[in-house]
Amino acid sequence: MTIDWTSFTPWTSLAGGLLIGLAASLLVLMNGRIAGISGVVGGLLRPRTGDTAWRAAFILGMLLAPGLYAWVWQMPQSEITASTPLLVAAGLLVGIGTRFGAGCTSGHGVCGLARGSARSLVATLSFMLAGFITVFVTRHVVGG
Amino acid sequence: MQTLVAFVVGLIFGCGLILAGMTNPAKVIAFLDLAGPWDPSLALVMGGAMAVASAAFALARSRGRSLLGLPLQLPTLKTIDRKLVLGSMAFGIGWGLGGLCPGPALVALASGRHEVLVFVAAMLVGMAIHEFSSRKIP
User: Fold this and answer.
1) DSSP letter string, A9-28
2) A114-133: per-residue pLDDT in tens?
3) At what angle do helices B82-98 and A118-136 cross, to 10 degrees?
4) Which of A116, B93, B115, B122 is the Cys-Cys partner for A80 at CB 3.0 to 4.6 Å?
5) Is B131 within 8 Å of A29 when comparing Cβ atoms?
6) Candidates B74, B80, B127, partner chain A, best to mutate (most A CBs within 10 A)
């Protein structure tokens, strides 16, 4: 294994992680809810009275975050290499998978692990392993 | 009030994802590429987020109710089944293919790039498929 030191951003990534942790903390301490993005979005597809406003507000906040960020700092570069058909497949898998698996990187990976949930540990290991294998195959077996 | 809190949380969460580098699919894929030139940055994102959130969840549990007096709504399901594992693995494959997970994808929508629009549209269709199928099979 070789580490790509030129791309490694320990401080900004740690600081970003702390902000994500702060956001998840605020939501559970103030509202008593889990900051799991797939769950927050998924809940809107089955609307229940009194349960939609906070979800919509959360998502609105996320959509407006780049505006706030760009106002204070410079937006980091972003590069998408996947083709359109691949992005469709990826989106479908992420949508179906996170709902059947009841969570994504935020719900299972951050909140679930933080509260010591065994289900979230299994889910996180499952999606990490699948992600590692997928990139290995696309980068080193069929592509690359 | 809880709507305002959720909005602010969304803003902070989104800024955290941008600062962390999660909204750059190339960086996410570089983290998942153990055999290539590996970028370990995202391990620090998860570590940092978990460190803060662990303390908050412990505090929330000991209080029992939220600071706004709302009930603590934590998942109660404990069963580890095929649905959990296969669903998570499907998500992992999609994550590895596109380099986007749900949070960063929503944040990246503001960039107006058609690639992100395509991904988010497909993701919502995927979620709707689950919704439809779980309504038919209770």
Assistant:
1) -HHHHHHHHHHHHHHHHHII
2) 999 999 999 999 999 999 99
3) 40
4) B115
5) no
6) B127
